[in-house]
Amino acid sequence: MSKVTTSGTWTAVAPTPPNVSGLGTGHITWGVPVGGGKSGYSFSGGTIEVRADGSEVTLGTFTHQNFPIMGGGVNQFDVDLAVRIRFEEDEKDREFSFRFHHFETPNDGPTPDDEVDLPTRVSPESVTIDGEEYAAVITGFKRGGEIVNTFLSPENGSNSADIVAVLSRVGVPDVVITDVRYKGGVKYSQADEYVEIVNRGTAHADISGWILHADDPGQNFTFPPGTVLKAGQRIRVHTNEVHAEWGGFSFGSGRPIWNDKGDTAHLIDTQDAVVSVYGYGTEAVGPS
C-alpha cells in the first residue's frame, strides 16, 4: 500500500470549440455564454492510499460546469487530462493521461443533459511496483454512491463525481463481480435486481460463453458470442430487465433470483474455472 497525492491539468481539446481557456491548468472552459457562464471541466485531487491489488480508489473529483453556450458547431470533442501522482514513499511524481469525450447536447432536445464518456480508460504510462508494471485504469464516475460508465450533466449548474480508478498490471484483464443488488424495487418479480461485473484490468476480456451462476439449478446466464468486456468497463446482468447502457444483459426470469437473506454469485469461464465469487448477507465473503 502506498500513500499518494494526486493533481491534474487539462492538456488538450480536439476538435477545438470556440473560446477555449485554461489549458495547462486544473480548470478548462469553452463556448460563448448565453446569459450565464462558460461551460468547462475542473479536476481536484487529494491524498489517498493505493493498493496494487485491484482495489478501487478515488483518483480525484471531476466537475462539469454546464451552462448554455454557443459552441460554434462543435458539439462533440475530446478533452485530455494529465493526472500527476506523487508517491510519498519515494517522493517521485508519475504522470498518467486519460481522455474524456464530451457531447454538448441540444438544450431543447429530448435528452438535454450533456454526456461525458471515457473512450480511453487505461493510461498509456506505467509505473513499476515490486518488479511488475502497473497502469492506472479508470473504472467509472461515482455519484450518489453509484459508479457509472457515463456521466450525465444537467444544464444550468455545476455537476460533480468522483473518478474511481485502480492500479492494474499491464496487459492483463481482471474481471470480477463487484456487487449484487438483491432487493429490487419492482414488486413480486424484482425484475430490476442485478449483478455488476467490472474489468479492472488493462486489457480487454472476451467473456463469450462465460456463465454467471446464481447458486441454484436453472439460474444461469451465459454471455453470448462476441461479448467483450473492455478495460475499465462495468456491466450489469439484470433479473428481467434490459438496459442497453449496462450492456443489455438479462436472465429473463419472471421471478426473483437473488435471496434477500443471502446468496452467492459465481462467474465461471469456458474452462469451468471460477473467475470470481461474490457472497452477501448470510453468504457474505466479498468480491474475489
What does this structure look like?
The chain is 0% helix and 52% strand. With 288 residues, the chain is an all-beta fold. It has strands at residues 2-14, 27-30, 32-33, 39-44, 47-50, 57-66, 69-70, 76-87, 92-103, 114-120, 127-129, 132-143, 146-148, 151-153, 157-169, 175-181, 194-199, 205-206, 211-213, 220-222, 228-229, 234-238, 249-250, 262-268, 274-281. The chain has 2 domains: 2-169, no CATH class; 175-281, Sandwich (Immunoglobulin-like), CATH 2.60.40.1260. A hairpin with a 6-residue loop joins β19 and β20 (220-222). It has no helices and 25 strands.
Oligomeric organization of the protein chains: single chain
Give helix % range: under 10%
Number of strands: 25
Helical/strand content category: mainly beta
Overall pLDDT score: 92
Looking at this protein, list some descriptive labels.
single chain; 288 residues; seven-stranded antiparallel β-sheet; six-stranded antiparallel β-sheet; globular
Topology overview:
Layout: E1 2-14, E2 27-30, E3 32-33, E4 39-44, E5 47-50, E6 57-66, E7 69-70, E8 76-87, E9 92-103, E10 114-120, E11 127-129, E12 132-143, E13 146-148, E14 151-153, E15 157-169, E16 175-181, E17 194-199, E18 205-206, E19 211-213, E20 220-222, E21 228-229, E22 234-238, E23 249-250, E24 262-268, E25 274-281
